[in-house]
Every structure is written in structure tokens, then in C-alpha cells.
């Protein structure tokens, strides 16, 4: 581990930082303020959120990996303001819980998504009950050496996509929630919670494929008889066919081979939802 004036730097396997627990080494730049982001982004870089939507190559990545730390995490200070600025490293699960306690509505559809706020915005995370774009007003981002504000519209959200400016690091986001009561928010959370009941608990990166128009990737993979199919320690979850789980020692090569096998055996073209890092 070494430290610059504004960042802590270490070389570690990215497997330690992603929920699928797969991926080789990278130089991780832990930053807690804008000066740290500025320093870390002087060379080619990638931005890591909570690592819950990433498939990282076994060789790791050559670029610096920028990881926003506590200085960008407002999980503990989030109060009862309906219109609120929050750091991009704020974990979504705590945010959803605290919004319920404060009687603020708008985040219910995000229950159970293990993202950081910045990653949720970059992927327009959500469910059929709602997505982050529904409550986003504007973001503050580090773009080409400057801190800029961008209205939510500028990110042109789509299904699990957002258009960030090239090389942007999201730093903070302004959300607008709706005053309600803890009881009403709890009632709105109940169906989202129920819909997640069968979700695998094993290590994964969430849904592997986006749903093709008018259908569900999980249904198609299940119909192709692929639940339980394995390559090495990567397995199509028997509980939810659109989840690939790591049984312990899966490699990115295993996961890639399993993705290819699924795409080969399902007749409808399926697009991988995860971001791939490295070759
Ligand atoms: C068990 C499980 C359940 C899931 N359920 C859902 C679900 O219901 N709905 C859903 O939409 N997703 C779901 N996901 C997938 C995942 O949580 C989302 O895609 C989430 O938005 C990823 O956020 P992250 O912070 O983990 O980002 P990461 O995976 O770390 O990164 C994803 C992308 O965002 C970029 N990024 C991250 N932070 C920043 C930043 N600060 N600035 C700029 N770019 C950034 C990264 O560079 C990368 O391109 C699930 C995942 C798991 C493991």
C-alpha cells in the first residue's frame, strides 16, 4: 500500500471488490475527495462502484481503478430531507432503509440492489417497480479535470443504461423523494421484497442478461433447460436462471464460457447486462 497526498494506492485482485468474486489484479486508487479523484484520473482509469455489475478478466485490468471512499458516502448522515445531495459511494441498501424510516417515498423499487449510488446511476439500476432515474434531479461529476453539474435529462437514461460524458466520475447526486409515511413506504416495499424472495444468495453479479423486448431472459434460459448447468465453479443458478453464481473458485474464463453456452442454446439473442473489464 502506498499513499499520495490525496489517494491511497494498492495492487489487489479485483475479485476482492466485486460481488461475483472473480477478477485479477489492478492498481486500486482509494480517494476521498476531489483532489484524490483529480490525481487518480491523470492516467487511464476505470471507476468502481460496489462492483455488483462487473465481470473482470482473470488478468485484471491495466488501467487505474478509482474507488470512491468514505468522503463520498453519506449513508450515515442521510436525514429526512426529501430533496437531498448524496455522495456517489453511498450504498443503496442503507439508503432505501433510511428513506423508509424517514417516511420518504421514491426508492422502493431499488430494494435489494447492492449498488453504490454512482453505479446505480451509471447503470440506471431498477426493477419494474421503479428505477433510479425516477428520483434523480442532477449529478455532480468530475469531467476532464472540472467538477460540473449535469441535469438528469443530460444522462439520457434507458433500460439499465445511462449516457455519462466520456471519462466522467460521478461524485454526488441530488435526489428528490416524496414525503410520505414509514407505513406507506413499507407497504410499497412489500411487493418488491416478495418479488426478490427467490433470488439466489450465492455470489453473483445479479442478472447476467438484459430482458429481450417482451420476454424475460430468465424464462428463456430456464425453458432451454439450463438451470444448474456448470462450467468449472460457474453455474446457472437453480433458483433463478438469469443468475450465474460463483460456487467458490470460478474464473472469468469459466463465467465467459457459460455465458457463451447460454447464448448458443437460447434461440432468442441475449445481451449480457454486466460491464466487462479487461480481456
Ligand atoms: C444480488 C444482485 C441483485 C441485483 N439486482 C439488480 C436489480 O434488481 N436491478 C438492477 O438494475 N441491477 C441489479 N443488480 C446489478 C447491479 O447492482 C446494478 O447494475 C448496479 O447499478 C451496479 O452498481 P455498482 O455500484 O455495483 O456499480 P459497479 O458494478 O461497480 O459498476 C458498474 C458500472 O458503473 C460505473 N460506475 C460505478 N460508479 C461510478 C461512478 N461513481 N462514476 C462513473 N461511473 C461509475 C462503472 O465504471 C461500471 O461501468 C444486482 C446485482 C446483484 C449482485
List keywords for this structure.
279 residues; alpha+beta; Uridine Diphospho-n-acetylenolpyruvylglucosamine Reductase, domain 3; Uridine Diphospho-n-acetylenolpyruvylglucosamine Reductase, domain 1; 3 domains; 4-stranded antiparallel sheet; 6 helices; 29% strand; binds flavin-adenine dinucleotide
Short description:
With about 280 residues, this protein is an alpha+beta fold. It has helices spanning about 35-40, 90-100, 115-125, 180-195, 215-225, 250-265, and strands at about 1-5, 5-15, 25-30, 45-50, 55, 65-70, 85, 105, 125, 130, 135-145, 145-150, 170-175, 180, 205, 230, 235, 245, 275. The protein contains six helices and 19 strands.
Amino acid at each position: 500500500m502506498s499513499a499520495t497526498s490525496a489517494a491511497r494506492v494498492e495492487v489487489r485482485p479485483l475479485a476482492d471488490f466485486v460481488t461475483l468474486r472473480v477478477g485479477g489484479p489492478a492498481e486500486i486508487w482509494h480517494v476521498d475527495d476531489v483532489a484524490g479523484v483529480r490525481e487518480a484520473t491523470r492516467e487511464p482509469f476505470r471507476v468502481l462502484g460496489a462492483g455488483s455489475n462487473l465481470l473482470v478478466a482473470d488478468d485484471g485490468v491495466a488501467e487505474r481503478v478509482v474507488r470512491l471512499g468514505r468522503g463520498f458516502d453519506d449513508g450515515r448522515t442521510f436525514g429526512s430531507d426529501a430533496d437531498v445531495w448524496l455522495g456517489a459511494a453511498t450504498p443503496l441498501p442503507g439508503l432505501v432503509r433510511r428513506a423508509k424510516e424517514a417516511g420518504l417515498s421514491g426508492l422502493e423499487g431499488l430494494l435489494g440492489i447492492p449498488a453504490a449510488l454512482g453505479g446505480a446511476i451509471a447503470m440506471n439500476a431498477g426493477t419494474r417497480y421503479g428505477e433510479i432515474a425516477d428520483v434523480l434531479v442532477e449529478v455532480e461529476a468530475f469531467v476532464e479535470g472540472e467538477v460540473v453539474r449535469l441535469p438528469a435529462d443530460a444522462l439520457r437514461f434507458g433500460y439499465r443504461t445511462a449516457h455519462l460524458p466520456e471519462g466522467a466520475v460521478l461524485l454526488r447526486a441530488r435526489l428528490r423523494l416524496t414525503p410520505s409515511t414509514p407505513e406507506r413506504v413499507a407497504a410499497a416495499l412489500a411487493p418488491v421484497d416478495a418479488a426478490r424472495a427467490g433470488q439466489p444468495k450465492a455470489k453473483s453479479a445479479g442478472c447476467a442478461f438484459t430482458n429481450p423486448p417482451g420476454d424475460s431472459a430468465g424464462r428463456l434460459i430456464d425453458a432451454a433447460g439450463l438451470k444448474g448447468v456448470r462450467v468449472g465453479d460457474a453455474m446457472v443458478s437453480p433458483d433463478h436462471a438469469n443468475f450465474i453464481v460463483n460456487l467458490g473458485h470460478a474464473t472469468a474464463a469459466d463465467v465467459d464460457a457459460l455465458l457463451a453456452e447460454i447464448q448458443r442454446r437460447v434461440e432468442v439473442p441475449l445481451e449480457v447486462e454486466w460491464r466487462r473489464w479487461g480481456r
